């Protein structure tokens, strides 16, 4: 009796926690809720927000006000939410996943959890942001930059390429964040552009050159202000936020030479889940976020790059029109292999 | 003749134990199943590298240092507020518990921002202090908000100490120092072990503080392994194995020592406070230094964030976040404590099922919270999908994760109680539930209150479970504050962090007061 009870419990646990082994249906699941035209109002929408919710909440509220669609959110780090989506599989209640980086979107897409974005949603992006992925659309751009402390290094002495950071001239002066997702996306780009060996050699070289490891972008900006390091590798908007609070903050930033891999442009983007119960509303949100009003918000309020050219850029930023010259020639779709990057970072002992 | 009603009542005591087993088994099964997906060769290559040994050594060194430093702070502090004639013991107690409410990253940012040319030292004193980081920085930050775990358990144990023994020792000519070492100290081993397990496991899992302090531990590997779920699960399994070893070692120590209860229950008389005399001034100096570091510095830093920047402050959002925090934390704490008490009490019977349940209850704390959250999500979706987006799932997950905190003070105090009074009550015709209610619980009240306070404060500032399991649209104070700070929007984070601190200190004060009135 006791044994049978024990066995039963064990089976229940194994069943409850196992992965859904039924292969994902090739045809998209038609959810009864989605096909049923409900006359009772515009309905709702569930969005997993891998970006800072507080930054994008005004946007979602505006969307709610304009369309009458109620938006429910769950927010967290993009990688966490991607892991959550993978575990929830086709049982997720999420209709849209809005992620901060390509890696998380690629992970969800690779598990077959995104539906294709219909042609009606395709946003008028500039060529820079055009990827081939049919499963998600880019919504804003974020550049990798070289931040520096002018008290310790003059603009003329800055390295022309991120590959120069292995130079003994910069020994002990560089700060980076190997556990940070944006840095990892850069490493993925480096691997794609220069090959595995060159990427490994660069990582080992910069590490051997005494680069200091930080948790993420913000501590790098703080460490530059505190003159703990002279050079740092963050995303472009963190310093702008710091300067918005304190205009005299003694840190500056620059791009490397035109086309350098260190000037990588990463994107945030969104896709619609395969089993989305509110597909129509999800499509409406993606279209709206790619529209002029939302794109103008990114430029004005979050210091990001809009993905379309017809939006007035933020005067604090290098103009969007200059980015194609500055950014490395790279396809967004080459940025999805986080697994390989993590393996490399583990191999060289940075993780 | 056995009264069937009485038998049913006894069985009822096992129900919470079964619930606890199930709650821990769910995420455990998830971790094991995911780890089984790992490719053995791949896993060996990943784990078997010099870097793993380096990270492991770093972790052990940090864990041991934080535990030792925390005990060194907490023990004298607990003695001061329970045994000496220190003035304002309640205020000191509250100040010594408050650091528990401070999120690790706030502590780390605060300590880091003391030094450097733009630091608080320069701004307030005109002295450029060095910027703290590395091993020292990580150990300091972790100690400054983890020592209260030991403080609370020690305090509960001091409260239950039999003053007759100390008085006998004094009558025999022993001074206060000798009494502390020979009479009191041995009775704190269970409390110290319980605290060491909690703090040790916390250090093992902490990524926020160590990464900001630029000190790499195993949590770095854990943090970056979740996009390959099988790697993360494998690492989680190793951590769980380590915890099992620790728990076994702890059980061995406890067995060797045997029961330590002497007079046991019924010693409600407070001993006469020991006068501090000439030591009073240095003691206050040390207290002031400690409280400035662990309370004033982080709270001051948060206030500075708020005043220095322009926050877009929304009172509606803040109130909603506070409501979300409380609606998650209060019922979850009640549930955790309600399950912890019968489990800890049953464990005293030293039967093997009772012991298994006790260990299992503690294991929940060793499961990395992201794995725990995902385990519950997957289980809920496959069995009772409608529970997925409810607070109930979050409460259950919190109970599974934080049971160890609620049990710590209980496990520190229970071995000090003699079973004789309970036996006497039984022989006088009192049923097991009656014994629990009328004899055991009143004696445990201090420990229950301490456990509740620890659990509540931990849940209020918890992040991963709150992010992944809370109902859609719900967003606690801790999550809101963290989300802003993570994006360098410190001014916006400050109101949430300060409200979190205010709510935490109010609830800590209320809980302490409840404990005092009951005692």
What structural keywords apply?
heterodimer, A: 351 residues, alpha/beta, D-Maltodextrin-Binding Protein, domain 2, 2 domains, 6-stranded mixed β-sheet, 5-stranded mixed β-sheet, 38% helix, 13% strand, B: 519 residues, mainly alpha, 23 helices
What would you say this structure looks like, in words?
The complex is a heterodimer of chains A (351) and B (519). Chain A has helices spanning 2-17, 32-35, 53-67, 78-88, 102-110, 181-194, 196-208, 217-225, 237-245, 279-289, 292-301, 323-326, 338-347, and strands at residues 44-49, 70-75, 96-99, 136-143, 146-148, 174-176, 212-213, 231-232, 252-254, 265-272, 305-306. Chain A has 351 residues and is of the alpha/beta class. By secondary structure, chain B is mainly α. Chain B has helices spanning 4-35, 40-47, 50-83, 89-97, 104-112, 120-125, 134-160, 163-171, 176-184, 189-205, 208-212, 218-223, 229-257, 280-308, 315-347, 352-363, 369-383, 391-413, 420-427, 432-460, 464-469, 477-486, 490-518. Chain B is globular. At the A-B interface, helix 1, helix 3, strand 2, helix 4 and helix 5 of A face helix 1, helix 3, helix 11, helix 12 and helix 17 of B.
Oligomer: heterodimer
Low-confidence stretches of chain A: 21-39
Mean pLDDT across all residues of chain B, rounded? 86
**What would you give as the CATH superfamily of the largest domain in chain A?**
Periplasmic binding protein-like II
Terminus-to-terminus distance of chain A: 49 Å
Indicate the overall shape of chain B.
Answer: globular
Pattern of helices and strands of chain B = HHHHHHHHHHHHHHHHHHHHHHH
Strand order of the largest sheet of chain A: 2-1-3-10-4-11
What is the molecular shape of chain A? globular
Write down the CATH class of the largest domain in chain A.
Alpha Beta
């Amino acid at each position: 009796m006791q044994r049978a009870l024990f066995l039963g419990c064990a089976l229940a646990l194994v069943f409850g926690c196992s992965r859904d082994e039924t292969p994902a249906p090739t045809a998209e699941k038609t959810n009864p809720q989605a096909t049923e035209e409900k006359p009772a109002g515009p309905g709702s929408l569930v969005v997993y927000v891998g970006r800072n919710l507080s930054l994008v909440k005004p946007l979602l509220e505006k969307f709610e006000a304009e369309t009458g669609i109620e938006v429910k959110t769950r927010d967290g780090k993009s990688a966490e939410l991607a892991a959550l989506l993978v575990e929830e599989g086709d049982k997720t209640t999420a209709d849209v996943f809005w992620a901060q980086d390509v890696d998380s979107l690629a992970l969800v897409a690779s598990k077959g959890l995104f539906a294709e974005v219909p042609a009606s949603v395709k946003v008028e992006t500039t060529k820079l942001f055009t990827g081939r992925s049919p499963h998600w659309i880019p919504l804003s751009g974020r550049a990798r930059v070289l931040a520096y402390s002018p008290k310790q290094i003059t603009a003329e002495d800055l390295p022309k390429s991120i590959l120069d950071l292995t130079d003994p001239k910069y020994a002990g002066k560089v700060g980076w964040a190997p556990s940070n997702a944006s840095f990892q996306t850069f490493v993925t780009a480096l691997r794609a552009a220069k090959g595995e060996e060159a990427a490994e050699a660069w990582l080992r070289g910069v590490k051997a050159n005494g680069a200091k490891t930080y948790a993420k972008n913000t501590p790098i900006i703080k460490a530059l202000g505190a003159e703990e390091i002279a050079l740092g590798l963050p995303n472009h908007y963190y310093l702008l936020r710091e300067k918005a609070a304190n205009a005299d903050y003694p840190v500056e930033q620059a791009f490397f030479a035109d086309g350098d891999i260190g000037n990588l442009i990463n994107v945030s983007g969104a896709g619609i889940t395969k089993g989305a119960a509110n597909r129509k509303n999800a499509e409406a949100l993606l279209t709206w976020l790619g529209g002029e009003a939302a794109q103008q918000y990114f430029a004005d309020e979050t210091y990001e790059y809009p993905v379309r050219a017809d939006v007035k850029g933020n005067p604090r930023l290098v103009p969007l029109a200059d980015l194609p010259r500055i950014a490395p020639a790279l396809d967004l779709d080459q940025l999805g292999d986080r697994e390989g990057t993590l393996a490399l970072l583990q191999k060289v002992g940075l993780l | 003749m056995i009264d069937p009603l009485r038998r049913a009542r006894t069985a009822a005591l096992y129900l919470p134990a079964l619930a606890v087993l199930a709650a821990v088994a769910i995420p455990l099964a998830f971790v094991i199943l995911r780890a089984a997906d790992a490719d053995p060769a791949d896993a060996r290559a990943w784990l078997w590298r010099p870097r793993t040994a380096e990270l492991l050594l770093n972790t052990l060194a940090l864990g041991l240092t934080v535990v030792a430093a925390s005990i060194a702070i907490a023990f004298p502090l607990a003695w001061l507020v329970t045994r000496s004639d220190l003035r304002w013991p309640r205020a000191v107690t509250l100040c010594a518990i408050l650091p528990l409410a401070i999120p690790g990253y706030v502590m780390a940012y605060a300590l880091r921002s003391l030094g450097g040319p733009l630091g608080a030292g320069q701004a307030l004193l005109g002295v450029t202090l060095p910027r703290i980081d590395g091993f020292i920085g990580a150990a300091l930050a972790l100690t400054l908000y983890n020592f209260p775990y030991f403080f609370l358990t020690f305090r509960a144990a001091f409260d239950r100490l039999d003053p007759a023994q100390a008085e006998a020792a004094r009558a025999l000519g022993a001074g206060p120092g000798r009494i502390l070492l020979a009479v009191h100290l041995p009775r704190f081993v269970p409390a110290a072990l319980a605290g060491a397990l909690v703090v040790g496991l916390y250090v093992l899992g902490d990524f926020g503080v160590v990464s900001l302090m630029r000190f790499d531990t195993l949590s770095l590997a854990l943090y970056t392994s979740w996009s390959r779920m099988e790697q993360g699960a494998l690492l989680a399994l190793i951590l769980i194995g380590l915890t099992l070893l620790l728990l076994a070692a702890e059980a061995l120590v406890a067995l060797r020592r045997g029961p330590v209860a002497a007079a046991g229950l019924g010693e409600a008389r407070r001993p006469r406070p020991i006068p501090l005399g000439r030591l009073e001034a240095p003691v206050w100096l040390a207290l002031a230094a400690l409280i400035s570091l662990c309370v004033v510095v982080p709270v001051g830093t948060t206030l500075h964030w708020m005043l220095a920047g322009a926050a877009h402050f929304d009172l509606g959002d803040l109130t909603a976040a506070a409501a979300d925090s409380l609606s998650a934390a209060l019922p979850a704490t009640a549930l955790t404590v309600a399950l912890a008490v019968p489990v800890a009490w049953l464990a005293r019977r030293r039967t093997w099922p009772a012991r298994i349940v006790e260990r299992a209850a503690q294991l929940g704390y060793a499961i990395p919270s992201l794995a725990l959250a995902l385990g519950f999500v997957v289980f809920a979706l496959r069995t009772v999908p409608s529970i997925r987006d409810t607070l109930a799932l979050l409460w259950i997950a919190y109970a599974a994760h934080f049971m160890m905190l609620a049990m710590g003070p209980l496990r520190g105090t229970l071995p000090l109680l003699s079973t004789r009074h309970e036996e006497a009550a039984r022989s006088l015709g009192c049923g097991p539930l009656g014994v629990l209610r009328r004899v055991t619980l009143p004696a445990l009240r201090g420990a229950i209150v301490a456990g509740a306070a620890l659990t509540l404060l931990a849940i209020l500032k918890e992040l991963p479970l709150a992010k992944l399991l809370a109902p859609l649209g719900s967003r606690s104070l801790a999550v809101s504050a963290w989300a802003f700070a993570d994006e360098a929007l410190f001014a916006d984070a400050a109101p949430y962090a300060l409200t979190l601190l205010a709510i935490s200190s109010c609830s800590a004060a209320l809980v302490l007061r409840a404990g005092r009135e009951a005692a």
